[in-house]
Design brief:
By secondary structure, the chain is mainly α. The chain is about 65% helix and about 0% strand. The chain is built from 3 helices and no strands. It is elongated, with a radius of gyration of 19 Å.
């Protein structure tokens, strides 16, 4: 399972970096989003998720689930969604003002 998760994080990161290096704005936005997904998956997996144990400490219980990674990922998802929406609006405005969606505003 660790190899599958590592492969997923690596594939998301590689695709995100590839799209970030494109000359158009919308693939760049998709690349940022894929990198965000890769980081979220990495944070979620590094939290050592436990199955069948409570997230709240009890007096006579030795094992518990750490709720911090889940809280971090949920917060990152909300912030990432807001930033993606903001960048899409900026890209649409740049396309309307400049007439194309090239990252530096002019065709090569």
């Amino acid at each position: 399972m660790e190899a599958l998760i590592a492969l997923s994080v690596g594939l998301l990161t590689a695709c995100g970096i590839y799209l970030l290096l494109r000359a158009r704005t919308f693939p760049v936005v998709l690349g940022i989003t894929l990198l965000s997904y890769a980081v979220n998956l990495f944070l979620f997996v590094m939290g050592r998720l436990s199955i069948g144990v409570p997230a709240i400490l009890e007096p006579n219980r030795a094992d518990y689930a750490d709720p911090l990674p889940q809280a971090l990922v949920l917060t990152a998802i909300v912030i990432g969604f807001g930033m993606t929406a903001f960048v899409v609006v900026l890209a649409l405005r740049a396309r309307a003002d400049l007439g194309n969606d090239h990252v530096d505003g002019r065709e090569p």
